[in-house]
Design goal:
Chain lengths: ~325, ~325, ~325, ~325
Amino acid sequence: MIIVVRPDATEEQINHIIKKIKDHGLQAHVSKGTERTIIGAIGDEAILQSLPLEAIPGVEKVLPILKPFKLASLEFRKEKTIINVCGQQIGGKRIAVMAGPCAVENKTLLFEIAQEVKKAGANFVRGGAFKPRTSPYAFQGLEEEGLKYLAEARERTGLPIVTEVMDPRDIDLIAKYADVLQIGARNMQNFRLLKEVGLCKKPILLKRGISATIKEWLMSAEYIMSGGNHNVILCERGIRTYETATRNTLDLSAVPVLKQMTHLPVIVDPSHAVGKWDLVAPMAKAAIAAGADGLIIEVHSNPEEALCDGEQSLKPRSFKQLMEEMKPIAAAVGREI
Amino acid sequence: MIIVVRPDATEEQINHIIKKIKDHGLQAHVSKGTERTIIGAIGDEAILQSLPLEAIPGVEKVLPILKPFKLASLEFRKEKTIINVCGQQIGGKRIAVMAGPCAVENKTLLFEIAQEVKKAGANFVRGGAFKPRTSPYAFQGLEEEGLKYLAEARERTGLPIVTEVMDPRDIDLIAKYADVLQIGARNMQNFRLLKEVGLCKKPILLKRGISATIKEWLMSAEYIMSGGNHNVILCERGIRTYETATRNTLDLSAVPVLKQMTHLPVIVDPSHAVGKWDLVAPMAKAAIAAGADGLIIEVHSNPEEALCDGEQSLKPRSFKQLMEEMKPIAAAVGREI
Amino acid sequence: MIIVVRPDATEEQINHIIKKIKDHGLQAHVSKGTERTIIGAIGDEAILQSLPLEAIPGVEKVLPILKPFKLASLEFRKEKTIINVCGQQIGGKRIAVMAGPCAVENKTLLFEIAQEVKKAGANFVRGGAFKPRTSPYAFQGLEEEGLKYLAEARERTGLPIVTEVMDPRDIDLIAKYADVLQIGARNMQNFRLLKEVGLCKKPILLKRGISATIKEWLMSAEYIMSGGNHNVILCERGIRTYETATRNTLDLSAVPVLKQMTHLPVIVDPSHAVGKWDLVAPMAKAAIAAGADGLIIEVHSNPEEALCDGEQSLKPRSFKQLMEEMKPIAAAVGREI
Amino acid sequence: MIIVVRPDATEEQINHIIKKIKDHGLQAHVSKGTERTIIGAIGDEAILQSLPLEAIPGVEKVLPILKPFKLASLEFRKEKTIINVCGQQIGGKRIAVMAGPCAVENKTLLFEIAQEVKKAGANFVRGGAFKPRTSPYAFQGLEEEGLKYLAEARERTGLPIVTEVMDPRDIDLIAKYADVLQIGARNMQNFRLLKEVGLCKKPILLKRGISATIKEWLMSAEYIMSGGNHNVILCERGIRTYETATRNTLDLSAVPVLKQMTHLPVIVDPSHAVGKWDLVAPMAKAAIAAGADGLIIEVHSNPEEALCDGEQSLKPRSFKQLMEEMKPIAAAVGREI
């Protein structure tokens, strides 16, 4: 860590900073430049990162050298993590495609959609049983009943199930039925929830918060991993910007940035990012070209009657076409679909 | 609700849109303009707000007329809500000032700070026992022990206590000790938590999410109110923007905007917004001038040793000075401190 | 245009709004709903868009129905615009690839890079002679001397030249040497400059402003087109968000959004968007997959000595490899490279 | 400047970095920590700031120690700059209040408004003769005729005139009539314009770009100052965020931040920031409380007929009332109005 000293700092203030560093077991290395004095703290930077060094008189700014996450970093683990779920892989050569309705609405519809996405080549079925909704007056999900339908959909299709968990009290219940637990964007910094899914045995799909930096997102993965669960899948789903032409702004550059920072697999959710079904296909293709390990896409047989997010859902036919169109793109980047 | 029809929509598509509106019990009013046909849906707009009308072929865009929240709106309740907590008011003539350390670190320190802020004129003591921290390796709070110290600080000072709740399972415990329960920015859309504090009898201080619109924030208040708890205090604490000179960007215009939309009291947290202690005083003054009903300010006797947010904490002496300096500003806007 | 009336508006205020609409030659259509009265203004909406209707007492909000741009819209021209420049096309089947150094630094270097990018398959040479720099102390470009080198590079390679214009007074000079004039992101709303390039005969490459909405961007294209120059190429180059891991956030969804709004060709500048050379290739591929009509990429033989933007420049060898890797992706979306 | 070396950098790469630093006349100081090697470059950092050090193999990141601006910095000049304009001051004890219509529309209206704002206590008259408009079809200003009216308004009121310059070719003309030249938000990085107003003798009011960081804004001030014109007034006018309840988000914390970074006076434009007349007064008061040196406020006698920005203009009566209400707030922060 580098501490830049204010030009008007007194000798006494500088000595106080040095003492503080040494008191925490690190070495202090002072370097007087032409315009500023800087102090390098040598040793375990993690100790200093939790101290409010900027509150010390005479400090102008503090420049950390190391990243604040460890288990999630490429330095901790050099090979890419590949997560195996009931015979399917996430992070391997084959692109993981998770598809299904935003919410589980009823049995028939779910089974129909599940069959369709399987036929089109998806390797996971997604569907929400517990739904985070902006309005308290909107449909909140079928809860355990929905989980049962999802489990039955797995029986019928052989595909593993991805579903969201919103409350630490539901983890055991959901883990009983589902294969991958999703943490939604709004809960990316629900630290209690992160800690507890860290104790769970199922892989966790961690969506990026709507205004989370990539660093904060990796810190949230670190929360889960520090509990012992290293099977974390990162999911970019659009960030909030000033632009209103799309629901959010899909930050596809997060994919190659993450590949330089972490060994965890990275997938993309184009549906929530754009918020309009006719923009999903180009962004799904772009995600594959950018190097994503997978996609999560909303599919509904009758979008205009969907209880949730109908405007961004593909019909099965469009989804099937997209799957076909993505094949040569996957091949072009050394993957398959 | 107004539905704008695409210029290339067929007669059949238009009839389908009209049918859909009527099927939900509303009237459809068609108006053909020179360049666009628009359809007005007359009746209970709330029914339509939950439908994915943009998924219907032929629809160009959907323009809602009404706000999606009710209980929180000025139309529902015309007089300003004043919340009474153990003899103190929030939303009344006197500015509510909540002050104290970011986290409860130990008994002695808390009592010392509580006494100091009381002497300076604060009317609430704040302090965190359960702390949401970006890093899993950082101090996470003293939990129940911290709550006990807070309750004891109330005994000693006579001031009500404000503290954060992060997990639905802690609500009963925290409500036993505290007078106002705070929902932090990261949990503004933790809907399960909102629902359950809606069943609680204690007032809820609801911080604005770091990238929440004012509408979404009021929808979160609506979640709490729809559970029966109408004592919600809104707290602006800075939003995330591209500017890095401050920790967040304090959106003070939210104060007068909210005064035009809701009857709920609005307070401001300058400490988290700016993130640097020497910027707190000007922004606290500005908040009062903009019409805020209160402030929540971090105060610590020894910021450079604070376990949390030391760089943004005022020392008791600076806090006392600020309280003095705000008096004429409060008077200038018809309030007192 | 729809005018939503405040619930507390008086009959007199409503009549005043109606009168105002009629005074401007439009018809007013009043519709009283259960909770709000709305007034539809039927006729030429452009007239109303310039009026401050929200300043009229009793008006709650104004909802425009039509887009504010015309010449740039798909409704004005249904077929895609293809721009021909010295035998090269922008907007046709073949992807337009513009490559070269950020700034023209000297003759030898420019010629060397121009030859390299030509060999790799680029169809335009880019290079700045007039440079907008954040610091007044940084290299500002070779000006006319640089233009002469660019023209000579065209002679040697046969490729058309793209270069930036920053000042209305330089248009004639630059148009004498260059084939495509670029308006940089910082000048996207330099309306004087837009007006004057609208009178120029050369195609204009209009970069998106760092915080411009897609609508504002199209309004800037409209400025140029309303002067008579319909050969406008839109260039997405990243927008400003809170994320600092990349220089800007590349908004690739702008590509399919624009395809639904305008007939103008859309290209992408991954270099300025990401700001780091090793992130350029994945985003260039993603841009093609998303449907972009072209790319503009910074290439430099010796990036660490570049006078401008070296950190985001590809070496010729990496550029060549990228060109090869993009071929199957272009083919997958029905294009060629 | 601190250069952090990648953990996998070779000895050869490190030596190359050191050589590069020495080649530019600085000293290189290498420090090997437990997890990273860092290299401090000691000497004139400005030399290095223009080099693409991140393009050098083996470099992980580059941390600048110094600010990139000089003339605008508090280190260059410790006392606050006070600008004198025809007997009025900006940056002195008295708050500078600039008021008037968005655009000069006609003689009578301008004179009427100018008289009203003078009576209310304003000390400058503002009004646009050259108007930057998002649409090419909107009113673009009266140009020289408008300037003449402004000059006549100065004769009648005795108040100095503030008006916008958009094009380097208009500087001489505008400087002939006006007392303060305004650079609008959209031209904050129109570097040609900045350079040329730097040669002008009149004070320059430099508005913050809609998405400019405070540092970039000061770099634009530096452009003007490096030309010899040190009379620059900074004007915060709202930044672009995701929030749509206001036109922009007024970043009032920029005021105290700037006071720690620069000697230049800082004023605030609440009208453009909020975009609605009934939000102007609270934000004007907040600006004074935050320490602003002045305000620029739009006033119009008949907002609903204004040719520009009527929805955000105060009527003379509201402006007068605001002026009265701000007096005790100004007094509370040691200023007068």
